[in-house]
Design goal:
432 residues, mainly beta, two-stranded antiparallel ribbon, 3 helices
């Protein structure tokens, strides 16, 4: 009996071994194509295009607007207050821009920038040759702007590196004259919900400076409101709240002010007042246009204090476009942290359309100390300056510019920090 059972068991096992349906299944092996991809797996591009949203986003990214700007310039600087030789800088700046298409209100903008000196006969904050005078355009490559934007609900919001120009750029600007320029790492929003009113807010985390550095020590809460009172007449109120983490500028600098400006066919005017702690600022400019001639006069007052860099009477012009103000020789860039004796700048200017294409601009500045000069600081005439510029659009994509600035020191005093200085620029800009 036992032998019979064993025989039956052996026969059964053989049958099972011969039955393919009862065999142990091997794991299924994927069929691999020669290019290394799975022939049953959809590519990311296929998955992307299978949804309308994916296809639309891809279309927005691909069908954007590229542009290219190439700037080449020569700058000469001779500062009598510096024993170094005169500076000669031949510089180039290449900006490659890409603005994506818009999807559901979102788009993005990237501006890659490279500033490259062809010659090195000049000094700058990031090194350079100390045997020569200073020209603040170092060799540098960066994303000057790179932000994500949303447009909707009558608002425009941005987050990322971006240029911010508010008011007349005196307190918050892009320093567009320099090759590197200035941008802010920020989140911003502008709202137009109320008729004739634009409300703007930005939180600025850090600043991309003209010397190629990133300033993490300053941050801002920026509030600005602009209201159109009448045709050609606008009023703005602002609060720029600056925080400093770097000594000796560790104090909070809150700037509050108003700006009123307007223009018509023959007349333009602008007035601005601001205050910080016990410091004050005033600006007034009037322009009159007749035929091809524009004449203007203006005055700017910046209070000073002489007891230290953090003196509450020193008005600080923050991170504005300083080159636009107080002469192109840049003798008063110190207004960014305040001047001991303050500054009164009185000027006259003119713009002449010399021909169909040639435009000539000229300005004369007289610089004096402010009325509330601190004890022990310079008091008197800082100096005088003459600025000239000629612009010529060679063709649709290329324009040329020639400019010069000559500063002459006023009262010869050891505490007068200004010096005789001459600067010449020749630039050409090609855009596609």
């Amino acid at each position: 009996m036992n032998r019979l059972l064993i025989a039956i068991l052996l026969i059964s096992m053989g049958a099972i071994a011969d039955d393919g349906a009862a065999r142990i299944q091997q794991p299924a092996r994927a069929s691999i194509e020669e290019n290394g991809g799975h022939n049953d797996w959809r590519t990311l591009d296929e998955l992307w295009n299978e949804t309308k949203a994916g296809a639309d986003i891809k279309m927005a990214l691909v069908n954007g607007t590229p542009s290219l700007e190439f700037l080449v310039g020569y700058e000469f600087a001779d500062d009598d207050g510096n024993p170094a030789d005169s500076a000669h800088a031949l510089l180039t700046r290449t900006r490659l821009n890409y603005l994506t298409g818009r999807y559901e209100g979102f788009d993005a903008f990237v501006q890659a920038q490279y500033v490259g000196p062809i010659g090195d006969h000049y000094n700058h904050a990031d090194g350079g040759d100390p045997d020569y005078d200073v020209i603040n355009d170092p060799d540098d490559a960066r994303f000057h702007q790179a932000y994500l934007a949303y447009t909707g609900y009558e608002s425009v919001a941005r987050i990322g590196a971006q240029e911010i120009i508010l008011d007349n750029a005196r307190f918050i600007g892009n320093v567009g004259w320099r090759f590197n320029a200035q941008s802010f790492n920020a989140a911003s929003v502008a709202n137009h919900s109320i008729s004739n009113l634009t409300l703007y807010y930005a939180y600025i985390n850090s600043i991309n400076g003209i010397d190629g550095s990133i300033n993490h020590d300053r941050e801002y809460h920026v509030f600005n409101g602009e209201y159109e009172l009448d045709d050609g007449l606008k009023l703005a109120g602002f609060a720029y709240l600056q925080r400093n983490d770097n000594t000796p500028l560790e104090e909070e600098i809150d700037t509050f002010g108003l700006r009123l400006w307007g223009q018509n066919d023959s007349f333009a005017h602008e007035a601005m007042v601001a205050f910080q702690r016990s410091a004050y600022y005033g600006y007034l400019k009037l322009n009159m246009k007749a035929a091809d001639l524009n004449l203007g006069i203006g005055c700017e007052y910046i209070s000073g204090g002489g007891t230290g860099i953090d003196d509450e009477k020193r008005f600080q012009t923050l991170n504005g476009t300083a080159h636009k103000f107080n002469g192109w020789a840049d003798q008063f860039l110190g207004t960014g942290i305040g001047l001991p004796s303050g500054l009164v700048d009185v000027w006259a200017e003119t713009t002449v359309q010399a021909s169909e294409k040639v435009q000539i601009f000229g300005a004369y500045h007289f610089f004096n100390t402010a009325a509330n000069t601190g004890a022990g600081s310079f008091s008197g005439i800082y100096g005088h300056e003459l600025d000239l510029m000629a612009k010529y659009p060679v063709c649709k994509n290329f324009d040329a510019m020639l400019a010069m600035a000559y500063y002459l020191q006023g009262d010869d005093d050891a505490t007068n920090f200004t010096d005789d200085k001459a600067v010449v620029w020749l630039r050409g800009t090609l855009r596609f």
